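In this supplementary section we document a worked example of the pipeline. Step one takes a protein sequence of length 995 as its only input; no multiple sequence alignment statistics are reported here. Step two produces a three-dimensional model, which step three serialises into structure tokens for compact storage. The input and output of this example are shown verbatim.
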Amino acid sequence: MTSHEGARNGGRPAEEPAHLLGFGLLGPVRAWRAGAELGLGRPQQREVLAILLAAAGRTVSVPLIADGVWAEADRPTRPGQSVRTHVHRLRRVLGHSADAPLLVTVGDGYALRVPAEAVDTWAFERAEGEAARVRAAGGTAAQARDVVAGALELWSAEPLAGLHGPHARAVRDRLCAVRQSLLETRLELDAEIGDRPDLHAEAGALVIEYPASQRLRGVQMLALYQAGRRAEALSVYEDTRRFLEAELGHLPAPERRPCPALQQLHQRILCADPAVRPAAEPAHLAFDADSIPEAHRLPCGIGDFTGRAEAVGTLTGMLTQPGTQAVVVSAVNGVPGVGKTTLAVHTARRIADRFPDGHLYADLRGADREPLDPQAVLASFLHALGVADNDVPDDGDERIALYRSLMAERRVLLLLDNAASDGQVQPLVPGAAGSAVLVTSRARLTGLAGAQHLRLDVMPAAEALALLRRIVGDRRCDAEPEAAAAIVAACSRLPLAIRVAASRLAAETGWTLADMVRRLDDEHRRLHELATGELAVEATFELSYSKLSPEQARAFRLLSAVDAPDLGVHCAAALLGRDTESTEDLLESLVDLNLVESRRMGRYHFHDLVRVFARARNGRDDTPAETSRAFAGLLDFCLATARAADAASHSVDPAERRLIDVPVAAAGLAFGTAQDATGWMHEEIPVQRALIDRACADGALPLAQAADLVDKLNNVLPGVTHQTEVTAQAARVAEAAAARGDRTAEALARYVRGNALWHASSFAEAESELRRSIALCADGSDARLRGWAHLTLCAGARVGGRTDEAVGHGEASVRLFRAAGAGTAEGTALGELAFNYARQGRLTEARDAAERGARLVGGEPSVSKAIGLYYLARVLRLCDDADASLQRAQEALELFRTLNVTAFEAATGVLMADLHVQTGRHRLAADVAETFLPVARRTSPVLEGSLLRALGCSLDRLGQHTRARTCLEAALDLFEQRRAQADIDQTRALLADLA
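The serialised model returned by step three reads:
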């Protein structure tokens, strides 16, 4: 068997012994064992396999694999872990034996040990050289063409179809260049042999695809001349000359001329050289279009088809690609109502003239409870092709064979609409090149061999608005432009929904667009409003929902109830009460059905209107208790994981970070580094906030867990944006807890709110909440919670210039933490207390306390360690040890930046700027202040004021007195807004000195 024979066996490489594997990259990434195709999983998993196959047995490191799979903007939080997960799954698919390992670990990388010839690209990339060797050995042009044609048969679709990583793009570009060269070689051999009367048509199409190829232009010229079209052949040369002049205008004139071979061919045609002989035109085989039953004729397109230019162009390119040696199959999938059929019909009618032998259409009724039997469709197609009823075979295989034999010599376009499955479509696909098949389906037909897939998304905003205008009319839309945009938004840019809303408006001329907006505002009635005549969005969704298994339907409903943009697979597993692997399989099945979407590995979301439908089904099909149980599982998991993230980011025992005793049942995720912990918390912010809001509204969910989760968000994700939301959510939890009489949850929520308010420089309000928190713990319980409340009150008193009061709160905090055995918290409290000791002039005690605090929070890089270093640096500055202070501040700054703790990053910038002012390095002080001001503006008005004060001091020393005054006045204004008395007094004194 030659290297290209396997391509005719389902598009896979030549059969090897049964125990060996075969791989395909010339199309979707595929694999076979003993002729049976293997399921390779998600696109990123296929990308990993493609990278290892391209390495041809060489070792590829994990970082290099990650660089190949993800562009920088799409990289997951832990790319190395994702790569290892994909490799683990590939091993399960490919098989792993200790005696003869295939996918082996080599150092920090992997190698796939399979023969080079097991990959279809091996024969494909060697073909041109092999053809040259055939000719050099005395072989004929026909023999060389067989080699090249065999390699081109391996090309089933765009290489690595559906993969979009950097490696996939690079390999695709290289293989496309190889294909172009092979096409050029084959067409030149066709021209030499002279047995292709239609060669000029293929060459012309390829010139459009590859306009810079002078080899193809030469074949086109020769083929046109041989077809008796001398004037056109000469015009190709003229077009080539003009193209080169336009494209290569920057080069010297000799380099802008056609190549010598093309110039020579031009002269031979001008001279009517008898060596270039004409060929006869073939007879054309076609069937009578009038004989096709109405059910199998292309439907009429809609008159108001709007937009979709890119999708139409993509489908047109797929279905009419020149040079293919196999039937072209293009499959369109997408969410119900997205316009798959409309697009397919529009495209089919647009390219109908490219298929002179006819067009066939069938609605396969894939959304019905009983989709059409493909054998019945085959019988109907055979009738359309002129086969009498008595001559249609009863045997299914014989029926397929007859159909394919009748189609073999024809160029026919088939439109198979609303397919249910791969198995329904496959028997209807012709077996020979020339014809094209366009399939639409609600599900992604992943098993359709050689198919090119197009997932149709909702319309871009401009096209969606244009569709509304097309139906409703420009005058009404121009009169209410905001309402028109609001209608499109309420329809979530889904074409069916827009068409329904627009049709209702067109029918109800007395309605304003604002009337329709009001009708669509209520999510609970939106789907009811999106119905008119036989068009109904809800009914369209219902057809897909009715096909789901009970497990799929439950997952579909419960996922929609989480009020977050998307959901990670671990959170989904907790919500559904399943393990992660089975959850991923379940959700991927919903993705394949286009009821759930996944644009990032391991994360899932809904189209807006599909979510509305799913929530309505949740309300009808799930009891409130069932939904509450699901949310309780998700809340428990998120709290367990947030506790682990808090502990990892501060490098402490999780029990020490827990301020109240609230048990969790889930193990939660574990984190190897603080960066991983903060990364997960950032990614899941919307889910955690949705859970907290749900717990406040749902009496079946534990508010203490919700309060603890708010605390973890406050601990791990500081910053103005997060603090504002934490403040609001803590207030909601506190109010709900007070209403339920849950003192513990209320105490924690009020502490969290007070702490967040303090970081937002709302000191008076913060103090009130913190004192209420301590009062709620009057029975002496929750020592850690009281300790943190006292510590925050200590910091507030210090900012207000009440140093003695600050020391009292600080010492109370240290005592409580020490009694609770919370060493890291004690270290943090000692750092704050030390600064206040220094302000009282107790410098020896201050330094001792700060150094002991730094030792208690030291160890692995963490937020706690960074805070300890920051406190020590502040005290060392007050002890006049500026060099040591600056060193510790720089160490703290590096950690804060690594851990993305912006509030303390800005505070450390203030400290460093003040140190430079103190030591007379005013230019450096100004640079530092300018550097950290943008961070401070996003973090804290008091920190912004402190940096402006340092900048004003340094500018004054540098002779820029007017600007210095401006900075100091701006700083004073910020301090006065926040009633930071100590800073107010200091800044006023500096302004007085300027006068």
